């Protein structure tokens, strides 16, 4: 059974990714670690506990430490337009504080990885703050990690600005140190905006969810109805993009991935305007050490087929 830690900042798209991951029979989620990003850490923690509680599970949640972004663009970005006031659209599920462990996110990640060297994968759905702090505390952890999958960045696409993405823009220093320290040993599989924008949740997809999965359908509408409007209005798309769910699927069942080149990537940290910008050496011009496998092309039909299969397990787990 594959073991994974999900590092996350729920977040509408994080929420669905977490529920999906928690309900798959062949993945063991060892814990959720939380990170400030889409909301304050306090709200993120409450959201995470409510999601685990929703499935009546006891998966522990380990809190990160508060971290305000140093990126001046973040302060001006409008998170609530995409995630709602509390980060989960209009979904309201009671939190369950007892699920919050005393151990910190960083200590838990270090402990879990050391307990089972090279077997524990990390899936990051938020800023890379926690992983960077793990490396500060325990630089050798790099030799014991399993695979790292990360939603963030974009090579030819931005969203926070036309060229930067939220997770890597929120804590660009962390992203850069994770790619330089971990990626050069075990390339990080990056599922960024290049990939996620290839799977639009069109009215046909939403209809298919309604037809086959009544419980998920209710959840989906609560999480994403407002967001669908936002994507239509701001980006002229026929539906929303659910970034973190694709990142989970890249980890879980990646047969829909068609191009994932190995490349050297640098994340810009020293700019006010474009902190988090991903510069990938896709053509190998600079002879740098490779550190990333970037999901560049997916087959959207196969993606949605695989997702619907994963949804079957979630549907049976929902109350
Ligand atoms: C990423 O930013 C967050 O707002 C989402 O949850 C996702 O992880 C997409 O850019
Ligand atoms: Ca997220």
The biggest beta sheet is recorded as: 8 strands, mixed
Beta-sheet strand percentage?
A: 5-15%
Can you give the helix content as a percent range?
40-55%
* CATH class descriptor name: Alpha Beta
List the uncertain runs: none
Structural class computed from helices and strand pairing? alpha/beta
- CATH hierarchy: architecture: Alpha-Beta Complex
> Could you give the order of the helices and strands?
EHEHEHHHEHEHHEHHHHEEEEEEH
- Full CATH superfamily name: Ribonucleoside hydrolase-like
Give the oligomeric state: single chain
| Beta strands, count | 12
Q: What's the mean pLDDT score?
A: 96
Bound molecules: beta-D-ribofuranose, calcium ion
Q: What's the overall geometry?
A: globular
- Give the termini distance in whole angstroms: 25 Å
Total domain units:
1
User: What is the CATH topology descriptor?
Assistant: Inosine-uridine Nucleoside N-ribohydrolase, Chain A
Radius of gyration: 18 Å
Number of helices: 13
């Amino acid at each position: 059974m594959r073991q994974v830690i999900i590092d996350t900042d729920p977040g509408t798209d994080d929420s669905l990714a977490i529920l999906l991951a928690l309900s798959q029979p062949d993945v063991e989620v060892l814990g959720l670690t939380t990170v400030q990003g889409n909301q304050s850490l306090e709200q993120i923690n409450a959201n995470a506990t409510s999601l685990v509680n929703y499935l009546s599970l006891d998966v522990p949640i380990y809190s990160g430490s508060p971290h305000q972004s140093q990126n001046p663009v973040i302060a001006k970005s409008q998170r609530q337009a995409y995630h709602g006031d509390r980060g989960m659209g209009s979904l309201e599920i009671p939190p369950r504080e007892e699920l919050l462990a005393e151990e910190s996110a960083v200590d838990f990640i270090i402990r879990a990885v050391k307990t089972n060297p090279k077997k524990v994968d990390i899936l990051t759905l938020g800023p890379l703050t926690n992983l960077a702090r793990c490396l500060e505390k325990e630089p050798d952890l790099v030799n014991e990690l399993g695979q790292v999958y990360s939603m963030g960045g974009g090579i030819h696409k931005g969203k926070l600005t036309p060229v930067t993405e939220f997770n890597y823009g929120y804590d660009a220093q962390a992203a850069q140190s994770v790619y330089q320290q971990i990626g050069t040993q075990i390339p990080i599989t990056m599922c960024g905006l290049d990939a996620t924008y290839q799977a639009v949740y069109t009215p046909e997809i939403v209809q298919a969810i309604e037809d086959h999965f009544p419980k998920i359908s209710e959840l989906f509408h609560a999480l994403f109805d407002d967001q669908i409007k936002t994507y239509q209005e701001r980006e002229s798309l026929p539906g929303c993009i659910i970034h973190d769910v694709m990142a989970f699927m890249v980890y879980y069942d990646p047969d829909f991935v068609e191009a994932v080149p190995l490349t050297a990537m640098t994340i810009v940290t020293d700019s006010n305007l474009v902190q988090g910008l991903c510069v990938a050496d896709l053509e190998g011009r600079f002879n740098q050490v490779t550190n990333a496998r970037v999901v560049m092309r997916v087959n959207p039909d196969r993606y949605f087929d695989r997702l619907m299969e994963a949804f079957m397990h979630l549907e049976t787990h929902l109350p």
